Amino acid sequence: MKKFWTILAIVVAAAIIACLVFCPKKGKKAAEEPKAVSAIVVVDELYDFIDGSLACHRSDTCVANSAALLAEAAKDPSYPIIFVCDHHPANHCSFAEQGGPWPPHCVQGTRGGEIADELKQYVKAEYTFNKGEDPALEQYSGFEGRNSAGQTLDEMLKSLGVQEVTVIGIATEFCVRNTAEDLMKAGYKVTIPEDCLACVDYQGHVEAIEAMKAEGITIK
Ligand code: VGL
Ligand code: ZN
């Protein structure tokens, strides 16, 4: 009988010690690692880059895979889905007629500047950033855009407490790369799913992917 009480005392003591050792640790761990706040930035999935004057390689798969990614993200209604849009005046300096490298594209008020129909349901005015509106400035980076309230992308992400950004869209070598690099320089953790990209030139895409990887952008 004495043996029974001894064993019981040991079991109870072990249970108390286990609780003291493990329970507070669990609580502490949860407090130390809060889930990072994330957002998706959709770059230039606009008709001139899809099937228009600057139609890009793999634009169909880019749009289809982007639509699937956004459908999943939108299951959480508070998840920020942000659009960056080339939005040029008809006399923009990047157009060939003005001595620039590109055919006219994404001119304000034309179909070529509209977001792909498959993605339109996710568009919110305050989460839409237009760039390239000044005729004299080329702006490849979404960081240079403004929303309808005059806010920059960085200001918006900071106000939402975002730390991690997934960047998708067109074109890998130009607006996607410039936007992703500016986000990284500003301290965000940047991830790019490669199947949600389209490019002007495939070799340029491959080189841009390699360069971004080397800079610390996650490509998956
Ligand atoms: C872009 C060329 C000209 C882009 C924009 O979205 O990557 N490329 N304007
Ligand atoms: Zn442009």
| Run of helices and strands | HEHHEHEHEHEEHE
Computed structural class: alpha/beta
The end-to-end span amounts to: 64 Å
The largest pleated sheet is described as:
7 strands, parallel
Counting copies of identical and different chains, the oligomeric state is single chain
Fourth-tier CATH superfamily name: Isochorismatase-like
- In DSSP terms, counting alpha (H) and pi (I) runs of 4 or more, how many helices? 7
Would you report the number of β strands?
Answer: 7
- Quickly name the level 1 CATH class: Alpha Beta
What small molecules are bound in this structure?
pyrazine-2-carboxylic acid, zinc ion
- Contiguous low-pLDDT stretches (5 residues minimum) are none
Q: Categorize the overall geometry.
A: globular
**CATH architectural arrangement:** 3-Layer(aba) Sandwich
**Number of separate domains:** 1
How large, in whole angstroms, is the Cα Rg?
A: 24 Å
Proportion in helices: 40-55%
What CATH calls the topology is Rossmann fold
What's the SSE blueprint?
Blueprint: H1 2-32, E1 38-43, H2 47-50, H3 59-73, E2 81-86, H4 117-120, E3 128-131, H5 153-160, E4 164-170, H6 172-185, E5 189-192, E6 197-198, H7 202-215, E7 218-219
Parallel strand pairs: 1-2, 1-4, 2-3, 4-5, 4-6, 5-7
Bound molecules: pyrazine-2-carboxylic acid and zinc ion (ZN).
Which structural traits does this protein have?
single chain; 220 residues; alpha/beta; Rossmann fold; 7-stranded parallel sheet; 41% helix; binds pyrazine-2-carboxylic acid; binds zinc ion
